[in-house]
Design goal:
Layout lengths: L6 H25 L5 H27 L4
Helix pairs in contact: 1-2
Length: about 70
């Protein structure tokens, strides 16, 4: 079994990366409008998690799945 991503797999990971970037942009924009402390904490947690996911996907694309 190959350790590298196929072209279709690379494109799918790129689509996931684009979606996560959109989600992070939206949550960052909306967090400025939030007045509720609990919702603000949830959005802050989502920003942190989303940033980590984006970094993982970027590393995965940079390596293209190679070991």
């Amino acid at each position: 079994m190959s350790n590298y991503l196929g072209l279709h797999e690379t494109l799918e990971v790129h689509e996931l990366l684009t979606f996560k970037n959109l989600c992070l942009t939206k949550v960052t924009t909306m967090s400025a409008l939030v007045q509720d402390d609990e919702l603000s904490a949830i959005l802050s947690n989502d920003m942190t998690t989303g940033t980590q996911h984006i970094q993982q996907l970027q590393r995965f694309l940079a390596n293209r799945g190679g070991q």
